[in-house]
Amino acid sequence: MRTYSLYDTDGRIFSVVSLQQDLIADVVVLNQASGHIDGAVDGDTHCVRDGQIVPRLESPVMLQGLVLSRLPAPCVILINDRLYETTSETVELEFDQPGSYRVSVQAWPYLDKEFTIENPA
Prior knowledge:
Distance between the termini: 58 Å
Largest sheet: 4 strands, antiparallel
Strand content: over 45%
Helix content: under 10%
Order of helices and strands: EEHEEEEEEEEEE
Number of strands: 12
Number of domains: 2
Radius of gyration: 18 Å
Strand order of the largest sheet: 9-8-11-12
Structural class: mainly beta
């Protein structure tokens, strides 16, 4: 038995499997993978580029006050589990209720960037 990591056309590692070496080609096809890499690779922190395992890039996103800037386009902004898609490089956030808001910016191949924003009463 060997361990393999499957990845898609964008280099996202989406599955780690342990199986006999002679079965990997069939598993790649069945899972519609672009390819595989030997070993278990953490897709949260790494991706595949040009057939090599590389660290995912640090996100360039910055938060100043309620303004998110340096957003990769396109990206998804997740606010307390609600998704907002944007192609803008800058977004001004508005909250209609006081409280704590968890904001995450997701844009492949960048690592997710997370912020906590306190909106006073």
